[in-house]
Amino acid sequence: MTTYQSHADTNKLIRKALKEAFPGIVFSVRKSGGSTYIRWTDGPTQRAVDKIAKHFEGATFDGMTDYRGGAVHSMNGEEIHFGADFVFTTREITDAHRATCLAQIDALTCEARTDWFNSLTGPRFDGDDWRKNAPRVWELVNAKPSPTLNAISLVRTY
Questions:
Q1: Per residue in 7-36, pLDDT tens?
Q2: CA 63, CA 50: separation in Å to the nearest integer?
């Protein structure tokens, strides 16, 4: 039997997992319609937060067929359906944080900087101004283990 979690309870679990993974970072986790929107300033990259937050999505979407389906997870051995259909994240970057990122990149050796550039995937750069985009991909905050997240696994989608 599948337990259906309310949207509010799903957001509580998201807050808990983010607090465990990124202690000291303040996240705003809000419901809007059937989705959850997460916002924060500086701190971890959007990709790092997505790795945690997306585990709590209760729906799937296939853009090729325009199909929206559901997702059932397992949490502590019990099947559960999360109340938030989709989870969206937005990170704001302050000028001070951007300067810190750039200083760390500037301190790299030429070889290390080349390796870093060659390893980039994900967000697209705005033109050729890599300095403007450096904080989007530069990891200043690493996620800590989250017992809440570790207790969750995807069982099936439908």
A1: 999 999 999 999 999 999 999 999 999 999
A2: 19
